[in-house]
Amino acid sequence: MARILLAEDDNSVRYFLARSLELAGHEVLAFADGEDALPALNAGPFDILISDIVMPRIGGIELAMKAKEITPSLPVIYITGFAAVAMEDPSGLNGISQMISKPFHLNSLVEAVDHALAKREAS
C-alpha cells in the first residue's frame, strides 16, 4: 500500500482515479490543483505524486518541482489530456517516472503506480 498525493482539476476524473487507486489498496489524498495540494505535500510524507500537468493556479510541473524539493526521490506520474505535451521529451519534466495520456485505462494507472514504487524501492 502506498500513500498517494493526487492532483487533478476535473472533479469526476479526480474522484474516479482516487476511488480506483483506493480499491487497489492505496491511501489517496486528492486535490483540485497544485495550490490546494501544497499544504498536504508539506505535511507529507507521500510515496508517489500523480498530477495532471495543466491545472489552474499551480500546475503539475510546478507541484512536482516543489515535491522534489521536499522528497527528491518521490516518483511522479503525470497525466495529461494534451497529446502534444505527452509527445514532448519528458527529460525536462523534473524526474518523471511516467506520463500517461488521457483517456487511459485504469489498469494503466495502477501498473504505473506499481512500477514507480518498485523502481523507488530498488534505488
What does this structure look like?
The chain has one domain: Response regulator (Rossmann fold). The protein has five helices and five strands; from the N terminus they run E-H-E-H-E-H-E-H-E-H. The protein has helices at residues 11-23, 34-43, 60-70, 83-87, 106-122, and strands spanning 3-7, 27-31, 48-52, 76-80, 96-101. It has a five-stranded parallel β-sheet with strand order 2-1-3-4-5, sandwiched between helices. Helix 2 packs parallel to helix 3. The chain is globular and about 35 Å long. The model has no long low-confidence stretch (mean pLDDT 85).
Compact summary:
By secondary structure, this protein is α/β, with parallel strands linked by helices.
